[in-house]
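Subject: complex prediction, re-run

Hi both,

The earlier run crashed halfway through, so I resubmitted it with identical inputs.
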Amino acid sequence: MKTAVADMLGIEYPILAFSHCRDVVAAVTNAGGFGVLGAVAHTPEQLEIDLTWIDEHVGGKPYGVDLLLPQKYEGADQGGLDRDALRQLLPAEQQAFVDDIMARYQVPQLDDEQREAVSRLGGMNVSPKGYEPLLDVAFDHPIKLIASALGPPPAALIERAHAAGVVVAALAGTKEHALRHQEIGVDIIVAQGTEGGGHTGEVATMVLVPEVVDAVAPTPVLAAGGIGNGRQVAAAMALGAQGIWCGSVWLTTEEAETQPVIKEKYLAARSKDTVRSRSITGKPARMLKTKWTEEWERPDGPGPLGMPLQPLLVSEAQARINRAANTPGSGAQELATYFVGQVVGQMNVSKKAGQVVLDMVEEYADVVLRFAEEAAETSA
Amino acid sequence: MKTAVADMLGIEYPILAFSHCRDVVAAVTNAGGFGVLGAVAHTPEQLEIDLTWIDEHVGGKPYGVDLLLPQKYEGADQGGLDRDALRQLLPAEQQAFVDDIMARYQVPQLDDEQREAVSRLGGMNVSPKGYEPLLDVAFDHPIKLIASALGPPPAALIERAHAAGVVVAALAGTKEHALRHQEIGVDIIVAQGTEGGGHTGEVATMVLVPEVVDAVAPTPVLAAGGIGNGRQVAAAMALGAQGIWCGSVWLTTEEAETQPVIKEKYLAARSKDTVRSRSITGKPARMLKTKWTEEWERPDGPGPLGMPLQPLLVSEAQARINRAANTPGSGAQELATYFVGQVVGQMNVSKKAGQVVLDMVEEYADVVLRFAEEAAETSA
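This time it finished cleanly. Structure:
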């Protein structure tokens, strides 16, 4: 697994782990992989705390930070709107639809203090006003990589990163996105197939990866989407990737701060139990199929809003659901969902994050040996 | 590539090629792979002609036949209905919708003779009344494999096949389908990911193949969906498959009887230009996104019928479109679509079918060598 990406990042295994949880980031980095902290919903204060904690736990080993830098979102032409300005744009129809869901599923209200706490959370920091303060925090730490999980990194960010010796990665769901990333100077393209969790396109990893590899060569490509074990890592490498990027598989690890009811749903879910839905972020993102995603797909419903209006619309409802979801048999339990890819079907046991890395590497090595034996037989 | 499937079928490369075109079937078999003739729309007379032709061209090398054996279809409880009985079930709303599409896109009518020819065609032989005569023809030829591309093969068919030394394969889009196939005695499971052309489920190949391999072991599994080059074959083998099954990649070969306008669309299409649509067969099948698929997705439209009503509803319209589609700038040209998987994005040059097999094998061998070198470096 001595690939260009492993060299570039100074790591043993080019296995990049996306997680919102600092414990996972540190565990993967310490196991020889590379942890990437998803920070889009962090406040700058919380990000400072988390990165300091990571610095204290990885002993100088490399890690990265991930943000969303979409080109298209409500208010983009004004460089982003503040939360109150955005709230003015929420249509009454969608607000009534959310209220109706909450009422029909009997999801308890928050008290004033809880509601206040929800409104203080970072939300989705997708405009420069939102993410610039996060970048300032990130660049004050010894990050080795900055990634855009949505949209092309702005030129200023690429310059700033390169001046600081920081590698820039960007996710791409189509060949066209990958070429655009390459053109603006992105160092590593993450080709993510539709089977991946979170924001994802329509083309599957098996097709997308070789297509992107061929299009952007010699820029290195990581495969993402559908990768959670060593055979899948080997498949990605066979397709021409220089490593892999995965996010779902960490959600059921012991370190993950996944809500218990969601963790249980993940462990029980089949690979066919996910859906691409705009119901949480406003852009298509893969998550568990639940009553929540079903409600938003109703033909008689108003349909979701765009980004960042939809997250603003549903943030309090999501908080209400998550607070109440641990009550067995509750409507909130039925509604509760979260991002995850189709590999959820193979996530059946909770393990340490470091163990997940080692299991991947071991199974990968088995496949390499199997191919080596085939090569030996063929030449014999 | 000496796998269990290669041994079972007596072939050099476990590369199975699904095609409606006898020339492709023979070419792949002659190149060391294994051709499978898709016969669902054949009349028994036409199948007899095609299989005789194949026998004359493969010099005793093995090939197979593929049918659709769905459990659920209109009239299934009566063992299938004849065409006139089915016609009585076509709702006026959908008939008017089809007429409206034809009118708005100015697709010329057929003359009486052409219309008569369309109604004589085999259509979709998905009930026992339809496929039993085809099986009788197939078993009169030295077929080595019978495959069900949709639904579990009936017990009587499995018995008949095994008594005749014929291997039974069945496509599965979920682990559950694969387990059902295994339980009833299917010899080879074809795990087909959502990226595949034609009837396909929602789970991607990268996730589905290892899941099915683990579930049905030691029954051998072929990977299908998203496979059109040697890196993808190697990825499939890394995932644990014993070979691959592919259909799309033959549609642009020199031997394929693909309509010229469709062939041009395939050669120009990007990987994101396909969609799963029920608009032709009544069950979700991946095909080129065109005005036809768009029309059927209109929220104000009646939506497609089930199988086999939808094919009956649209067969004449499809014939009208296909007859007129070669006229540049015509509505028929805009509407024309056909089944294909996401690998259409990499189908950019028309080649001989045998050459496609050899290119796959060569690129596969390159990947095997790359892994062998990695194994040698690691152990050094």
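Residues 76-123+258-342 of chain A form one domain.

- K.
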